[in-house]
Design a protein that fits this description.
The protein is mainly α. 61% of the residues lie in helices and 0% in strands.
Length: 108
């Protein structure tokens, strides 16, 4: 894999002009993830997953973009059902441990 070309592609698609994040920081985090025992599917956000689904669907000649997929998924998954999932419970637990009462990030 050509990391220089990938770096140009990723940083070109991301709005990092007002951010401390650089390609060097991204590469360091990628190396850490590859060495660790993290479940790599857990480090991507929902938009990343639906973007991947859009690419997969295009390979089957089904033209749907990320927004359309997210809309369809929202129709089939009720909020109350979501609140009963382990993922929801873990998100609430994470929020309790990591978000200040004023909405800021960090330990309470």
């Amino acid at each position: 894999m050509d990391l220089d070309a990938l770096g140009i592609e990723v940083t070109g698609r991301c709005n990092t002009s007002n951010s401390f994040i650089t390609w060097k920081v991204i590469c360091a985090e990628l190396s850490r993830l590859q060495r660790g025992k993290d479940e790599l599917w857990q480090v991507c956000c929902g938009h990343d997953v639906t973007s991947l689904l859009a690419v997969l669907l295009r390979s089957y000649n089904i033209a749907m973009n990320r927004s359309e997929i997210e809309g369809e998924l929202a129709l089939v998954f009720d909020t109350l059902e979501f609140m009963e999932t382990k993922m929801y419970g873990r998100m609430v637990e994470w929020e309790d441990n990591n978000v200040w009462s004023d909405g800021g990030m960090g330990r309470q």
